[in-house]
Amino acid sequence: MPPPGLFITGTDTDIGKTYVTCHIARRLVAGGHVVGAYKPAVSGAGQNAAGQSVWADIEELHAATGKQFPRERICPQRFNAPLAPPSAARAENRTVDAPLLRSGVDWWRTQCDFLLIEGAGGLLSPIAEQETVADISQDLGYPLIVVARLGLGTINHTLLTLEAAAQRGLTVAGIVLNEAVPTVDDCSIETNAADLARFTKVPVLAILRHNNAEDVARLGEIDWITLAAIE
Predict the structure, then answer these.
(1) Which residues does the entry assign to the active site, renumbered to this chain (predicted)?
(2) Is residue 67 marked as binding?
(3) CB 108 within 8 A of CB 73
(4) What CA–CA distance (Å, rounded) separates 28 from 184?
(5) What string of H, E and C letters represents the secondary structure of 33-50?
(6) What are the φ/ψ torsions at residue 59 (nearest 5 degrees)?
(7) Residue 15 annotated as lining a ligand binding site
(8) Which member of 26, 39, 62, 149 is catalytic?
C-alpha cells in the first residue's frame, strides 16, 4: 500500500508549489512524521561551483524532508532547459519516461509514513509527450492541494484549475493562496478568498503574504493528515 499523502499542484508555474510543499513537510517532520517528497520530473537547472547541474526544487525538498532521502528518489527525471519536461528532454535528445513518472512512487511505500508529491507547472502542463500533470495525478490518486497566486486574476485561474480537476474526477482538498512575489496596490488580495467561496466549496486553507512568517506558521495549524484522507 502507498503511504497517505497529498499532491501539490498549481494554477501556473513559479506559483510557490515548492515553497508550500516544503513548509508542509517541515511541519509534519516537526510533528514526528517521516515525510517523503516526490517530484515526478523537473526542468530548469542551475549550476554549482563545480559546474554541475543543480535543481533548486530538489534541493529544497531534500532539505525540508530532513536530508535523509536520495535526490534521485525525490526526482528521478531531471532536465536542464527551463521548459516543460518533454520539451526540455527533447533539447537533450531524450524523452520523458512516462511509466517512471508513476513507478517512481513505489520506492516510497516503505520509506515514509506520509508522502508529498509536487507537480511541474500547472495541472494541465505537459509532463510527458502525450500526458499532463493531471494524468499523473489521476493515476496516483492523491488528493490535490492547489497553490494559486494571491492577486488580481486568480479567480479565473483557480476556478479553471478546479474545473479541470473535477472533469477528471480528481479530489481537491483545498486551496492555498500564495503571494509568490511582492504585490503593490492590488486591493483584490483582500477579497480573493471571499470571492472564491462564492463559486466553489473547495476551502481556502491559507493565505500567504510574501515571506510572512505568521502566515507560514498557520500552515502548521492545518490537519494535513485528515485532508489526505478526503475522498
Answers:
(1) 39
(2) no
(3) yes
(4) 33
(5) CCEEEECCCEECCEECCC
(6) -65, -40
(7) yes
(8) 39
Residue 120 grid cell: 511541474
Burial (Cβ within 10 Å: 0-12, 13-18, ≥19) of residue 225: middle
Using the predicted structure, report yes or no on whether residue 1 has a pLDDT greater than 80: no
Is 118 flagged in the annotation as binding? yes
pLDDT bracket for residue 184 (50, 70, 90): confident
What is the topology classification, in CATH, of domain 5-33+97-227?
A: Rossmann fold (3.40.50)
- Average pLDDT over the chain reads 96
pTM above 0.70, yes or no: yes
Cell digits for 56?
Answer: 533548486
Predicted pLDDT at 151:
94
The answer to whether 57 is a known ligand-binding residue is yes
Name the nearest CA neighbour of 82 among 117, 50, 46, 51. Answer: 46
Residues with Cβ < 8 Å from 6, sequence gap 6 or more?
24, 116, 117, 142, 143, 144, 145, 173, 224, 227, 228
Is 201 known to be catalytic? no
Q: Exposed, middle or buried, 52 (CB in 10 Å: 0-12/13-18/19+)?
A: exposed
In angstroms, rounded to a whole number, what is the distance separating the alpha carbons of residues 155 and 124?
Answer: 17
In this predicted model, what pLDDT tens digit does every residue of 159-176 receive, in sequence order?
999 999 999 999 999 999
pLDDT at 220: 87
Distance from C-alpha of 1 to C-alpha of 153, rounded to nearest angstrom: 40
Q: Residue 38 annotated as binding?
A: no
Amino acid identity for residue 129 in this structure: E
At 142-158, the pLDDT tens digits run: 999 999 999 999 999 99
